[in-house]
Design a protein that fits this description.
37% helix, Immunoglobulin-like, alpha+beta, 8 strands, two-stranded antiparallel sheet, 6-stranded antiparallel sheet, globular, 251 residues, Arc Repressor Mutant, subunit A
């Protein structure tokens, strides 16, 4: 990743792991804007962001199932929380079905975070971690916790029928829940997780299917569907346009 772009992410405390993937930040230090491609990663991102050209703004970005080109303005600083789907439901207490491949701006006093909180990441991390723990539910549907545990552990490769049997929840009800709460089916979400796991292999230079793809052609088709390019083009990552891939290469 180029020296003008700084990225950092910290895994949350164990009590938050069902709900939050990480708390992080990025900073485009350059006086030039950056053209990037955002790829589906199964996360719901809450951004607290400002730049020289744009005032402080809080934005919630829903799940994505297609790649999207975006411009990061010059001198942009953003702190963010990357939620897992259960985080959107139980910590944000909202359905995100209406912002699939989209976003919505939240009030500028959301969670009492303002531009002053973007001066020090450690302080932000501490404040947000405390807030998230306060929002943890006293009770939740344990079928949902079990569902996501199995889905994540399998990188999305578990069959819906097997999942349904293991958690005693019908496939029809599971898909109704997913579509109503997140705006896509469980099968679609699983494919996103499989793509994200495949990116970790591509970041290491392995351009062949290691997960449950039918064959090489199917693998290439799925990678292109979610990234916009074939694996051999993706790995080149010209100008670090594919930020997620750049981050994975550093790990």
């Amino acid at each position: 990743m180029n020296n003008e772009f700084y990225y950092k992410a910290i895994e949350p405390d164990a009590s938050l792991l069902d709900f939050v993937e990480n708390i992080g930040m990025f900073h485009n230090k350059s006086d030039n804007s950056m053209e990037v491609v955002l790829m589906p990663d199964g996360r719901i991102d809450l951004f607290f962001m400002q730049s020289k050209s744009e005032p402080f703004q809080i934005t919630l970005i829903g799940l994505e199932n297609v790649p999207e080109e975006q411009i990061i303005p010059a001198n942009t600083l953003a702190y963010k929380i990357s939620f897992k789907p259960l985080g959107a439901e139980y910590l944000l207490n909202t359905s995100i079905a209406d912002i699939l491949n989209s976003a919505k701006v939240l009030p500028n006093d959301f969670w009492n975070i303002n531009s002053n909180n973007l001066k020090d990441f450690d302080s932000f991390h501490s404040k947000i971690s405390t807030k998230l723990k306060e929002l943890l539910p006293a009770q939740m549907d344990e079928r949902k916790r079990s569902l996501f545990k199995l889905v994540y552990e399998s990188n999305g490769e578990i069959k819906i029928k097997e999942l349904s049997e293991k958690i005693a929840w019908s496939s029809r009800e599971i898909n109704r829940y997913f579509n109503k709460q997140f705006g896509l089916s469980l099968n679609a979400f699983c494919k996103i997780l499989r793509f994200k796991a495949s990116l970790e292999h591509i970041a290491k230079g392995r351009l062949f299917p290691e997960l449950n793809f039918t064959d090489q052609t199917h693998f290439i088709k799925e990678i292109k569907k979610f990234s916009g390019v074939v694996p051999s083009e993706l790995i080149k990552n010209k100008n670090d346009r594919f930020i997620l891939l750049s981050v994975l290469k550093q790990q």
